[in-house]
């Protein structure tokens, strides 16, 4: 242990951030798409012509998993895991971890909440198919916060390399 260098932990923290962004966003999306899929299947058993409309509503909670994966890939590229040097200082590793947290946490929470809004919208479409446009607005409002988390994580991860530590 005499040769231990705390800076060797930088890559561990950065990788943890990338993994959390993909993992938590993916978990939220899997739960959300599963919830909405159950509601959509129920509607389609009663009226198969609504398949296209309810499918779109089912897919909405899946975007957080995509956003998390995007942040994970960007982070892995920036820290050298996908090519280049993986020499990341302890401080920069913590910065990458912090930069990934917004997408990880908001991705998990917003996907679950968006699923609830999508399930309600699927119920609306089942009763009033002509109201599909309005039904899309409810889960889309939740998507706004996932996009904001994506933006802050994206800007943060992309610009850590320029910080002198």
Structure description:
The chain has 165 residues and is an all-alpha fold. The radius of gyration is 20 Å and the shape is elongated. The two termini are 25 Å apart. It has one domain: Up-down Bundle (Four Helix Bundle (Hemerythrin (Met), subunit A)). It is built from five helices and no strands. Helix 3 runs antiparallel to helix 4 (90-127), helix 3 (63-78) runs parallel beside helix 5 (132-159) and helix 4 runs antiparallel to helix 5 (132-159).
Q: Provide the CATH architecture.
A: Up-down Bundle
* Assembly form of the protein: single chain
Secondary structure: helix percent: over 70%
Shape: elongated
CATH class: Mainly Alpha
Write the layout of secondary structure elements.
Elements lengths: L9 H37 L4 H9 L3 H16 L11 H38 L4 H28 L6
Helix pairs in contact: 1-2, 1-3, 1-4, 2-4, 3-4, 3-5, 4-5
Describe this protein with a few key phrases.
single chain; 165 residues; mainly alpha; Four Helix Bundle (Hemerythrin (Met), subunit A); 5 helices; 78% helix; 0% strand; elongated
């Amino acid at each position: 242990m005499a040769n231990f260098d705390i800076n060797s932990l930088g890559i561990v923290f950065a990788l943890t951030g990338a993994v959390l962004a993909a993992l938590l966003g993916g978990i939220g999306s899997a739960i959300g798409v599963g919830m909405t899929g159950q509601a959509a299947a129920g509607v389609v058993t009663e009226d198969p012509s609504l398949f296209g409309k309810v499918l779109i509503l089912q897919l909405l909670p899946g975007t957080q998993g995509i956003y998390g994966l995007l942040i994970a890939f960007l982070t892995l590229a920036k820290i050298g895991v996908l090519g280049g040097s993986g020499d990341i200082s302890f401080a920069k590793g913590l910065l990458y971890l912090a930069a990934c947290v917004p997408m990880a946490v908001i991705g998990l929470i917003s996907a679950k909440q968006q699923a609830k809004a999508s399930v309600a919208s699927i119920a609306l479409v089942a009763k009033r198919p002509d109201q599909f446009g309005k039904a899309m607005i409810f889960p889309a409002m939740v998507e706004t916060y996932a996009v904001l988390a994506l933006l802050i994580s994206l800007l943060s991860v992309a610009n850590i390399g320029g910080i002198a530590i």
